[in-house]
Amino acid sequence: MQKNGHALNEVIRMIYECKIPKDQMILSVDELKKAGFSYYKINQMVDEGTLEKLNKKYYENRLYLGEESDFYYVSAYAPNGVVCLMSAAIYYNLTTYRLDSIDVAIPRKAKISTMPDWPMLSIYYYANERFKLGIETINEGKNHFKIYDIEKTVVDIVFFREKIGIEETKEILVNYLKRKDRNINKLVKYAEMLKCGEIMKTYLEVLV
Question: Does pTM surpass 0.85?
Fold first, then answer.
């Protein structure tokens, strides 16, 4: 009887695994429910180690077989969060600097209920106009994250240059200006919209 029970549990586990996408790292409760899992089954998968609970709404898929990225966690902890500043600069290969945390922008009045121990998130509260401008969604298979486009990233770094560091800001601008896909008109337009047009023009006059 014990053997039969063990075999039944193994069959159930295999059924669960077949219904969980191997190419999606973060799964929401809604996605799991649409796949046919009840809360009881979800909790059972957590106990078995198939899923790891991140917070009330999201789970990490322990069956995931694709390439991992810390950026995939952002939407789980900050649903409106956008990868910004130095983390975005690293993504665009604008700096050799490496961070211990992910820079994430959220609307000024937004709240985050749960902060992870890992990966660490550095939260920046952006005013509405700054927050909305230049958001892109990166889709990598069934995984996704939001990030500011390269020009918005550079403008934000120039705006927050005192906090980022003058040398780091200069490195990022120099590397941006070396790119064939740079868009100076867009860069200046963003800078003027976000109240750092004059300092951006000064930097460009020196570096170009």
Answer: yes
How far is the C-alpha of 102 from the C-alpha of 117, rounded, in Å?
Answer: 12
Percent residues over pLDDT 90 in the chain: 75
Length of the chain as a residue count: 208
Q: Which helix (H) or strand (E) holds 140?
A: strand 135-140
Are 135 and 154 within 8 A, CB to CB? no
The first and second tokens of residue 205, run together, are 């006059």
Q: Which regions in the chain score pLDDT beneath 50?
A: 1-5, 7-8, 10-12, 14-15
Main-chain phi, psi angles of 129, to 5 degrees: -65, -45
- Torsion sign, CA atoms 24, 29, 33, 34: negative
From CA 69, how far away is CA 74, in angstroms rounded? 10
Residue 104 φ/ψ, nearest 5 degrees: -130, 130
Spatial CA neighbour of 75 closest among 37, 31, 27, 39: 27
